[in-house]
Recover the amino acids of this structure.
């Protein structure tokens, strides 16, 4: 069985056609979409984190609210930019959100992506020391965060308060959370590193390298290298692997009006962070066309979870119907059983 989750960037903007005109709209509609997705049988509700932009930024209040309104659906991030994070405060927030949801948190973390702010993480008080890159900063924060949620003693108790000096862990602790941490990987090398660290793999709709092969084949190679490195590291549990895709089934005239001209038949190659990057195509078309196209996507076949990016500014009702269409497509591909609510209008 392959899990299907939605991924929302939580854009908001007061422009014609937008149903998410304010930050409150974006937040509250994300909660409502998670509730609707759970009713449809969708497996995950994930949010992207961006700073200094009209998009979702502070994930833990939102994830806790989703966890309190739902019972089954996984909740998570894809991804949190660790350059910006206070690792210990984040560990407390993550554990609290996980406990509220009953252990459903799947937390994607990484270095993050290009952003509107120049070195915005420094504005948050996180300045790399001499000789440290921003990627090093993200990995250092991630290491401390993972130690904290695993219960490491990170402070010493005050004997005047406790009667004895001993190591103190952050509180609360949430059992099982350390095994539900994912690293957002944009290269084959970082996927190998992710496996060595014992984190799950979260691969996106772009890779910051290009070997000339189609995106899905390069991503499938990345996944295979991750699995080989995981086995070599001797980890006992089975890892999880997700890929993100833009899947937009054309099911009626409204869909055709929005997306009928966006059909892409090939990947895009461009420059990102000073180097070549390969971007995967969007899957736009009639449901039967998308079944055939997705069946040929080798990376989708390799992954256990597909995160479907949603056009959140079109509102909850539209995106719930879109997810129903994706679920029906997934049923045709053997990802899971189709439900009546997921059938095409």
């Amino acid at each position: 069985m392959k899990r299907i989750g939605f991924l929302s960037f939580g854009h908001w903007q007061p422009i014609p056609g937008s149903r998410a005109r304010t930050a409150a709209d974006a937040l509250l509609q994300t909660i409502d979409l998670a509730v609707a997705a759970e009713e449809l049988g969708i497996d995950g509700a994930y949010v992207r984190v961006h700073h200094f932009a009209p998009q979702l930024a502070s994930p833990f209040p939102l994830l806790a609210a989703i966890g309190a309104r739902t019972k089954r659906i996984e909740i998570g991030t894809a991804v949190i930019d660790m350059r910006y994070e206070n690792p210990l405060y984040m560990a407390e927030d993550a554990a609290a959100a996980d406990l509220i949801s009953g252990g459903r948190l799947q937390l994607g973390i990484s270095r993050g992506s290009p952003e509107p702010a120049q070195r915005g993480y420094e504005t948050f008080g996180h300045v790399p020391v001499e000789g440290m890159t921003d990627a090093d900063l993200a990995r250092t924060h991630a290491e401390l965060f993972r130690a904290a949620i695993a219960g490491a003693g990170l402070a010493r108790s005050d004997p005047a308060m406790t009667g004895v000096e001993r190591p103190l862990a952050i509180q609360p602790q949430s059992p099982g959370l350390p095994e539900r941490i994912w690293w957002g990987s944009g290269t084959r090398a970082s996927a190998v590193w992710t496996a060595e660290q014992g984190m799950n793999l979260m691969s996106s709709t772009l890779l910051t390298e290009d070997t000339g092969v189609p995106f899905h084949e390069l991503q499938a190679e990345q996944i295979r290298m991750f699995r080989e490195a995981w086995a070599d590291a001797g980890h006992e549990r089975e890892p999880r692997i997700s890929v993100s895709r833009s899947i937009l089934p054309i099911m009626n005239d409204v869909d055709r009006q929005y997306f009928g001209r966006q059909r892409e038949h090939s990947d895009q190659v461009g420059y990102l962070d000073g180097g070549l990057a390969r971007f995967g195509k969007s899957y736009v078309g009639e449901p039967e066309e998308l079944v055939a196209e997705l069946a040929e996507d080798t990376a989708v076949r390799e992954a256990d979870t597909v995160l479907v990016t949603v056009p959140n500014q079109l509102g909850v009702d539209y995106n719930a119907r879109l997810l129903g269409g994706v679920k029906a497509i997934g049923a045709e591909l053997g990802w899971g059983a189709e439900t009546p609510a997921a059938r095409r209008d």
